[in-house]
Amino acid sequence: MVPSILSLLIICHIVVGAIYESFDELPTKHFHYIIIGGNVLANRLTEEPHISVLVLEAGESTADVLLSQVPFFSSGLRGSPLDWNFTTTEQLGLNGRAIHFSRGFGLGGSSAINGMSYMRGSSQDYDRYARISGDPIWGWDALQPYMRKNERFVAPADHHNITDQFNPAVHGFNGVTYVSRPGYPRATDKRVLQTTAEFPTTFPFNLDYNSGYQLGVGWAPLTVGNGTRSRSQTSYLGPEYIDRPNLYVLVRAHVTRILDTKNISKLPTFNAVESTQDSGATKHVLAPKSLKEIILSAGSIGTPHILLHSGIGNSNELAALGIVSTHHLPDVGKNLSDQVLWNIPFTVNDTNTIENIYYRNITFQETLAEWKSNRTGFLTVGIANQRGFLRIPEYAGILDEEPCAGNETAHYELSVLPFVPAAHIHAAVYIFAERAADLIKASAGM
Description:
Elements (H helix, E strand, L loop, with lengths): L1 H7 L10 E2 L12 E5 L1 H7 L7 E4 L9 H4 L16 E2 L12 E2 L21 H11 L10 H7 E3 L23 E3 L9 H10 L17 E4 L4 E2 L2 E2 L2 H4 L3 H4 L4 E4 L3 E6 L12 E5 L6 E4 L6 E5 L1 H11 L2 E2 L1 H6 L6 E2 L26 H4 L2 H14 L11 E5 L21 E4 L10 H18 L3
Parallel strand pairs: 1-11, 2-3, 2-15, 3-11, 6-7, 16-17
Antiparallel strand pairs: 4-5, 8-18, 9-10, 12-13, 13-14, 18-19
Helix pairs in contact: 2-13, 5-13
């Protein structure tokens, strides 16, 4: 019963603010920046009132989609109409299996369908970015202002005392993305914390692993505010931003290629965007004379897809597909990596389980009514109330060399989950986008 109910919660859509559904509805075709995806960049660039920005989004607005609003429903978004429903090629290391690869299809991208985990990661990871790039601005300390610029840490949905669940010194309280601790207790909470007390060497308690020191078990931070998922459409394109007169958002706009319509040099200068709203029957080309940059922020699959169709990639591989090469760049569409996730299910001798919500329709209707009424209750929680970031001990003899950024970076993550989560590089994506916006502004003299 519940899955069929969830499928009904995703249907309805409305147009809000400066969001347009048709190319012909756009009041102007003159823009300084055209962004494919990228709500963070759209927000920060339009802080400059003389700069006009167009965002092209392949999906719909997700602002009013209940399935995306309710935190607990995140497990029902995989394979839904808000998911691009990508599938990997057959993987040699997985016995030839092809794996579902979720990506958000709608305004807000994957922030509208992920598991809402807000984890910055280890400071050593960021410092490794700085070393590899040769630029200290990507290090942990240098990115602190952007972490706080993104985050708005708020009280949990049930407003319980969280003094012993987080460290206020490492959080931002005036940003745009709502972040909170879990707002509804679970039967496993006391057991997890008791384990950290009984086995502090194996499972040390970590008050706040968003401090940069990642190792240990602690309370899970979620992109939830007032019991509702916080995603980039409701944060970076929220009511206080979407009505900016210099910000335009076009949904249902599938970008097919970026183009060099001038052809004035051997090195292409891409100055136009080709898109369609009817599966390719009609193609629109935007090439504003005022255009400063085209910014591709279409995700780990969408961005290389557009680049390859634009002739940017391995020229030999493109020729085999009948695509004219515009710039030989062999690494495009290569080197994607992701974390491995597996479940270890077990049975319990207890009636206080998630099945009470999933399989009893009366209970489900009661919890949904509570959430709709005051944004509290069981449906305000995410995939786990606690998470652990741990390392394989040296004496195990499994690792020939250190695979991570350093000795304070986790080898694996441990969660007590009621269902399978999506990936969660959420916080890092926001942080890097905030920094990128400043770099773009600086390059344009803003």
